[in-house]
Amino acid sequence: MNDSFGPIERRLASRFREGPSHAPSGLLDAALSSTRRTRQRSELAALLLGTPGAGPRVDSGARGLTRLQLLLVAILAGGLVAGILVAGAIQLLNRAIVIIPTPTSTTPPIVPSTSPIPSSRPLATPEPVADLALGLVLDPGIDAPWSPQEALWGGHEMGLFDNVAQVAYGGCPQACDGDISISSGSPMEGVIVDWIPDCAGFEPQACASFGDPPGGPVRLHGASTDELAGAWVDYFGQADAFARSISSAPVVVLSNGRATGAVFVRQGQAFALTVHARGSSRSDQLARLDRVLQDVHFSGAGPGVYTDGELGFVVSALDTGRWTLVHPGWGFDGGDDNSEAFWFGDCVDNLCSKPSISISSGDPSTGAIVGRDKAGVLLRVKGNSVSALRRAWLALFPESTFEELDLDGRPAVLAADPHAHVALLSIVAGRPFSISAQPPWFGSFALSLEEQVRRFARQLYFPASWPKVTTSAPTPGA
Amino acid sequence: VTTELVERARRGDHAAFEQLAAASIDRLFALASRVLRDQAAAEDAVQEALLRAWRDLRVLRDPERWDAWLYRLLLNACRDEQRRRRRKPVAVLAQAVDRGSVNDHVDAIARRDELERGLSHLTVEHRMALAMHFFLDMRPGEIANLLGIPEGTAVSRIHYGSRALRAAVEADLRATATSGAAK
Predict the structure, then answer these.
(1) How far is the CA of A410 from the CAs of A312, A357, A407, A424, B30, in angstroms?
(2) Does A266 touch chain B (CB under 8 A)?
(3) Cβ contacts from A onto B, under 8 A
(4) What is the dihedral of CA A377, A383, A388, A390, to 10 degrees?
């Protein structure tokens, strides 16, 4: 440490020393994998297109240009200026044509009409894939099975990942000894910590003990951990408070005779874990909550929580998008209830200019979902080994190539169809598992499908350790 | 050796670039983590910086300036990453789960929050200067040289940044003194 530092500077230095000093495993591979696919720009191209971060180096590059190169630059610049002038003149002469720039769309220019544009599909707001994140992951082994409660707890008809608070339960869904729930939501929507049965429902006895109708979820609102803790005490009553932390994020644990809970805020999203007393002792509740807290892990963060009954993963998206839960038995497919998939964004019908990305797991006999055909039927890969999944993928996409990966110690393959349908396939917790991406029906997007799948694979967290994605050279499909 | 590797990488030798990247990635990630205060964002920034380094390596005429150039690319990537995420509050560093004892006090949380709030009010440039000064132990002259800014600007960024964090650190020091006296 610098000897000239005073006490304040020394403390600051010690604060800055907290944190990682090594890059996560897999980051170098991921970075080099993208550079391998990128061609170096020529000096001239770099100069013309801009060289981010080069600063004064750009100037030194300019000094090294030949006369021919400078002439080319001048011609190109002149052409650009002329183009702008001509375009401006056309605009002045013909004001009836309005071109709305849509960076991700190749559709024809939009001609204004009197019909309103649907507000749910803003034309000029492409979804930046870079903002996607996989969020909070719980180990299913400690409190299996976890179950989402989207219908009962105020979620969207089609999906768990709406803008409302989300909740997942460990153990029994309602009113059993020591049931535990985890919920997340925006500060406005709040987090769900309890459920009051509707007095008009079929549990009048429970209803009488909770007060007046109507029943429904009990939400706590707060933009900070302290505010959430205050709201918790307002609802559950005075409690003992303890400090905990998850990934350095402060967590307040509160406990009284009625319930034990943990509240925290991550990237603006409120989270609450709640263990209801229901006959269990406070020490049991605290021990249970602590076990769950130890298995909460962040990779980025987001508003959604979801845990598959056996696999135990949670997906979430930041505020640029959302995940929609697709039950295979619902609407799109007459299938079974043994596999589930999450689709990013609004493109459940796949008829918009956004890539379709899904994460799925299923029974070996029914398979993980890897996409949807043009008729809307879900495509699956079945099997209980990676080679079986690979064969199933080849049956769907015969021209594919495969790259062998290691996904947190599990064998996996990155399957790529030349027509741009990509998926990572593996077996997790004995079940087929997939992260898949397929292109939009029209339009383009920032990252390649392969990059997106790799990105998710890198960010996915399996209990106990981070996945380490290592790559090998692509091999022929068959 | 680095100079030779840079020369080879400039000529399109990816293996040479891999050696350069492997030698730099820990340092870049540690720095980006402290600037962005979010592991996922730091990973993205490092990847982006390395991608830009490879893509535009041919404009780097002086191989001796490789480190300085890489720092600037990282700074720009951090700035872009911050811009992408600016609607969201700055996240704390992601580390392994650490359980506090039952006797932990909520004040510690408040103090940590205060430091994070202080950092969140600083620009990426200020945070980069602070991280280089307090984490990499660089003097203002070195920082200025690497970032291509006047030394006075580097001094100013460190001074302004330290002042913004002073309240949080003073509260921390007071708490340490109080707990020391109690024992």
Answers:
(1) 16, 22, 5, 12, 28
(2) yes
(3) 226
(4) 40
Residues of A in contact with B99 (CB under 8 A): 244-245, 290, 293-294
Which residues of chain B neighbour A297 with C-beta distances below 8 Å?
Answer: 97
The overall longest dimension of chain A from CA atoms, in Å, is: 90
Query: Are residues A369 and A376 in contact, defined by beta-carbon separation less than 8 angstroms?
Result: no
> Which of B34, B69, B74 lies at the smallest CB-CB distance from A57?
B69
Side-by-side strand order, sheet with A410-417: A323-326, A339-344, A356-362, A431-438, A421-428, A410-417, A401-407
What percent helix, strand, coil does chain A show, rounded to 5? 25, 25, 50
Tell me the mean pLDDT per 10 residues along chain A, length 478.
Answer: 72 78 84 80 61 41 52 76 68 33 28 27 26 32 35 28 42 47 70 66 46 61 87 85 74 85 78 77 77 56 35 35 40 42 48 59 77 74 92 92 82 86 83 77 59 67 37 35
- With an 8 Å Cβ cutoff, is A12 touching chain B? yes
Q: Which of B54, B65, B170 sits opposite A8 (nearest CB)?
A: B170
- DSSP state, residue B64: G
How far apart, in whole angstroms, are the C-alpha atoms of residue A152 and residue A192? Answer: 12
Tokens of A63: 């000094």
CA torsion A303→A307→A311→A314, rounded to 10°? 0
Residue recorded with tokens 């979804």: A127
Alpha carbon distance A449, A344 (integer Å): 13
* Chain A environment of B43 (Cβ under 8 Å): 23-24, 27, 30, 458
Q: What is the pLDDT of residues B10-38, one digit of tens each?
A: 888 999 999 999 999 999 999 998 888 77
What are the chain A neighbours of B38 within 8 Å (beta carbons)?
A: 300
Q: Please state, in angstroms and rounded to a whole number, the distance separating the CA atoms of residues A104 and A107.
A: 9
Per residue in B152-170, pLDDT (tens digit) is: 889 988 888 888 777 667 7
Confidence (pTM): 0.38
DSSP symbol at B65: G
- Measured CA to CA, the distance from residue B84 to residue B90 in angstroms comes to 12
Whether A37 and chain B come into contact, CB under 8 Å, resolves to no
Interface of A with B in 217-236 (CB under 8 A): 224-226
